[in-house]
Amino acid sequence: xxxxxxxxxxxxxxxxxKLTVTCSQNMNHxxxxxxxxxxxxxxxxxYYSMNVEVTDKGDVxxxxxxxxxxxxxxxxxxxxxxxxxxxxxxxxxxxxxGIATYEQYFGPxxxxxxx
Amino acid sequence: EDQVTQSPEALRLQEGESSSLNCSxxxxGLxxxxxxxxxxxxxxxxxFTLYSAGEEKEKERxxxxxxxxxxxxxxxxxKPEDSATYLCAVQANDYKLSFxxxxxxxxxx
Lengths: 115, 109
Known about the structure:
The complex is a heterodimer. By secondary structure, chain A is mostly beta strands.
């Protein structure tokens, strides 16, 4: 089944404790992206990757890191989480980057609480 | 700065009561406008892409239309299973994607 998977689905952690949220897609998509969703603010892009070893900042990159060493995986790293990073996080992938416009396929989400 | 505004924030309908959702946008050159459906606790699910003013797309009870400044998602004779949050997103010429906050639709039997 074609899908985007995220782990963990739920995470409660404390301020300053480094964490990684994994994202994997099995559709051979070139483009991958991370979003956070907060009530009333919609989805905001954190980072995106046009291909392996190519990443770029989205609208709200502060406090986050990413890497793209393999085409299928795009982990999101919070080196020192803070309470304002409590949110619902989504990973997404798209068939192709470049000049074309394609819809994105989203993972099931990771609900993160930082106390 | 690109902006996407969706209205209303919430919409409560009786089964069979048709209605429309609005997505107004300001963007520096539109490459595409997307509609997604999001069920509680799940990721957004792609519905439509519209590329130019005048374009229309349909899927079951949903029809999306596009003008130069806004898009409408029409729900015809909705059923309870159409209850969800509907998200609009625009992609500008610089490939940046901006989402609206969504319209939560509740359809009562």
